[in-house]
Amino acid sequence: MKPPLLLIGHGTHDETGVAEFGRFVHRLRCRLDGLPAEVSGGFITNARPPLGESIASLIARGHHHMVAVPLSLTGDRRALGDVPGTMALEQERHPTLEYDLGRSLGPDPRVLRLLAERLADARAEMPRLVTDEPPADIAPGETAVVLVGHGSTDPAVNAEVHRVSRLFWETHVPDLLTVETAYVSHARPGVPGGLERCRRLGAKRVIVLPYVLFAGGVLERIWAQALAYGANHEGLDIRCAEVIGDCEGLADVVIDRYEEALAGSGESSVSALHRVHSAVPCVVPAADGGAVRGPWRGAGLAAGPSDEETDLDADLDAELDVELDAELDADLDAELDVELDAELDADLDAEFEADLESEFEADPGTLPGTHPSAV
């Protein structure tokens, strides 16, 4: 029998997200039943079942080696929590516990295909977020996408979302006007900024595409921001796609992460070792490319943010959003001025050349390259 698969979620106060996580765990139980391999899942914080409870249940059934796969598209340590630290605390409680840690899920080509499916559904079926009737025929070249990630204080994580946007545009929707990147919080532009950029680039329809696994509070924030923007831009057809969600395609990606971790080729976003035992120190990549050696264990490691820290994060997010919106408006105005200046210069050059040719044909004595008013 193969080691069990342990799915790790960050946790949410939203019951919709918790329920979808539970359905996904059940789907994987059905998929891996023939291996055979058990499947369990838990949250680091803010939701049930807690990760420690799921681990204790597996150990009670005789499983002391398991494969942990964080359900994360970017591997953002701040968003997901300290997985190695949390697992180290569990190893303090269960000295026989050892585990392999799988890679994050994105940007897998199959994840991009799932995004393309959600986008196609939104283009065909989802209702507009504005009431005014848009032009009857909107060409692909007049349609834009805003791919929205969670946002992070880690620039590398935000850059990864930008990379996904570019990959998605070039591999799945090259005929569309653009695929812009936006974030829910912690980074700019926000959803309104992404929509505004698409509008200024000439889009008549913009589809907001969440780069999010499951429904819940994050999706509601994305929709709310898009709806608020649409209320002030009634001539723009704005649609919002669904999250990736519980589906067979996502299960395929998780199973591959499980298999590669078992084979020793998994690569954790937070730890360089794939099998971590309480008696063995963990080697973690350092910023300079070296390694920091030391056990992920000890009383000082927290299993995740407290409720007070979560509330503080929410307050800081609100303040940051206000500041970033002001900076975004200034940046967009500057970018638009440059673009408009370039377009105006091109138009004036074309008009001048046309006038010059017309004058020269009417009066051959006019010197080529000289404006008629100077002759």
TrEMBL record:
It comes from Microbispora oryzae. Residues 348-375 are annotated as: Disordered. Keywords: Lyase, Metal-binding. GO terms for molecular function: lyase activity; metal ion binding. SUPFAM superfamilies: Chelatase (SSF53800). PANTHER family: SIROHYDROCHLORIN FERROCHELATASE, CHLOROPLASTIC. It comes from the Bacteria. InterPro entries: CbiX-like, Sirohydro_Cobaltochel/CbiX. Residues 348-362 have a biased composition (Acidic residues). This is Sirohydrochlorin chelatase.
